[in-house]
Every structure is written in C-alpha cells, then in structure tokens.
Design a protein that fits this description.
Elements (H helix, E strand, L loop, with lengths): L1 E5 L4 H10 L6 E6 L14 E5 L5 H8 L4 E4 L12 H18 L4 E7 L9 H14 L4 E7 L2 E2 L4 H12 L1 E5 L5 E2 L2 E2 H12 L6 E5 L6 E2 H12 L4 E5 L1 H15 L5 H7 L10 H4 L6 H9 L4
Parallel strand pairs: 1-2, 1-4, 2-3, 4-5, 5-6, 6-11, 7-10, 8-13
Antiparallel strand pairs: 9-12
Helix pairs in contact: 1-6, 2-3, 3-4, 7-11
C-alpha cells in the first residue's frame, strides 16, 4: 500500500509517519514544503520525502501518483503575513482534492477540527468547514476526522503547558475554565492507521476526542502534579485579550487574533465520540500527561 501524507513535518505528521512505518508492505510519501524539512522526518526506508507546492498542480499530481490513500494534515490556526485561512486551509485542500482525482487516488482522509462548519461566524472554523465540503464533494471515498487539541511530547499545546509549569505561573484566558477533551497524538495516529488499512468507498465524518473532559485550568493542575511542581494562576479577561490581540495582529500582520482566542476558549463538545466506531482504545488523560512531560528525560 502507498500512503501520501501532507504536512508530514508537523508534530502530527512525524508521529503518524513513525506509526505507519510499523506496518508491513507500506510506503509513505511524506509531503513537505521545502528541502529544509526533510532531515526532521523520521528515518525509515518506508518513507519517501517529496517536495510539494500547492500552487503547482503538476508537482502535486506527481507526488500523489500511485497513492492508494492521501492523508491531508496540512493547515493553519494562526495566520501570518504569508499564510492565511483562505490559502492554507481552503485553497490547499482544493488543490489536494484536484490532484488526488487526477492521480487516480482511491480515497482521501482529511484532518479537521471539532467545531468546523461552513456556516460558522469564526473564520477558522468556517475555513475548515469549507475544506470539509470540498472533500465531501470530491466524489472520492473520504473520511473526515474532526479533532480537539492534541497532546503529545512535541505538540504545541503540550509544550505551552509544560512551559507555563516550568515558569511557575500560568496566565489564563478567562481563568481557563473552558472545557477541553484533549486527544493523545498517538491515538490519532492509530486511528489514521486503521482508516488506511481498509478500502474507503463512502464518505463519513467522525469526531474523535479524548476520553475525559476537564477545564484547561484543571488540566494544567494535573500536569503540574505529574511533574511534581507547583503553579500559581493569573487571569486575563477575554475581552481585554481580544482587544490586545486585534491591535497586535494588525501591527504584525498576523499572529494571535480574536478569532484564535475564540477557538482556544471554546468548549470542546461532541455528540458521539468515534473511538468505538474506529476500533481504538483511548489513552487515559493522566497517562497522556505523563508521556508528554517525560519527553527528553
């Protein structure tokens, strides 16, 4: 089997590549944007690094040629001067869908986010919802996997928590009382590996979140206990944070915006968790916290 992965040099991508390499008779086409990203990929004879350019349809078709399934991980939450939601989340997905169809790819797996909707007032959630529609309208066999915040040794959310605890102080938006369902990055990779293992002919949207819900504040407390450290909390009113983010992002041409703050502080709620449907056993939160804080020990 041949699996093509976009965003292969992200923390999610590298974790997925390492998991896929454990499968027999599987080749992974690891799509990255530049030569500089290649040395950061896991080392395996099963991994075939490939430079992809979403603005060059020919390069995309060549990269996906012969793939049985494409896993589209690439996307952004934080816009910059050089990358926005319209380009990175919507246009890039449209380019992958078009290239997949022209390459005779059999199926497509798209990583989305809990809260995605083309009707959302939030620009990020709306862009992911529009991207979902592109995948569902492709005519390809498709699986959409909506995920929450991901926790793992190299995941950005985990590093932020460990950094706050190491400093001894956490200043939290709105006191950090919003509810989260963090998903272990290893569980996501396992789910994606399972989805790759069988032919995909229909189109299904799943929501896959962690097994436990807790406030962001309590998650930090639990992580501090695991690390054997104490931490004090400060509160940043959300309205004040949004005002500051609006001004700063305009001056810098990107970064944390009110849109991002709304995403960060939204409760992660799903109607039906997909763990049973996918056939995976979710990692308990405490075990996930232990793994993400022991990295590098």
């Amino acid at each position: 089997m041949r699996v093509a992965v976009t965003g292969a040099n992200s923390s999610v991508g590298k974790n997925l590549l390492a998991r896929l390499c454990k499968e027999q008779d599987l080749t992974v086409v690891a799509g990255v944007r530049s030569e500089k990203a290649i040395p950061d990929l896991p080392e395996s004879s099963s991994i075939k690094p490939t430079i992809i350019n979403y603005d060059d349809s020919k390069s995309l078709v060549n990269a996906l040629d012969g793939a049985d399934v494409v896993i589209h991980l690439a996307g952004i939450l934080i816009e910059t001067k050089h990358s926005n939601y319209a380009g990175a989340n919507i246009a890039a997905t449209a380019a992958i869908v078009d290239a997949a169809k022209r390459s005779d790819v059999k199926s497509l797996i798209f990583i989305s986010v809990v809260g995605a909707s083309p009707e959302s007032r939030n620009a990020y959630f709306r862009s992911k919802g529009v991207a979902e529609e592109l995948v569902l309208g492709s005519g390809l066999g498709a699986r959409i996997l909506r995920t929450p915040i991901l926790f793992g040794p190299q995941a950005a959310g985990s590093q932020a928590i460990v950094g706050m605890i190491s400093s001894g102080q956490a200043k939290l938006l709105g006191g950090g009382h919003y509810q989260m369902r963090p998903l272990d990055i290893d569980d996501l990779s396992e789910a994606l590996t399972i989805l790759c293992s069988a032919p995909i002919q229909d189109q299904v949207t799943y929501e896959l979140v962690g097994p436990e819900s807790a406030s962001y504040r309590d998650i930090i407390k639990m992580t501090a206990q695991v690390m054997g450290k104490t931490i004090t909390f400060g509160n940043i009113p959300i309205l004040i944070a949004k005002f500051g983010a609006a001004v700063t992002s305009i001056l810098k041409g990107g970064g944390i915006t009110p849109t991002v703050i709304d995403v960060i502080t939204q409760d992660e709620v799903v109607k039906t968790n997909a763990d049973s449907a996918l056939g995976i056993t979710l990692t308990p939160m405490k075990q996930t916290l232990e793994k993400m804080t022991s990295f590098g020990d």
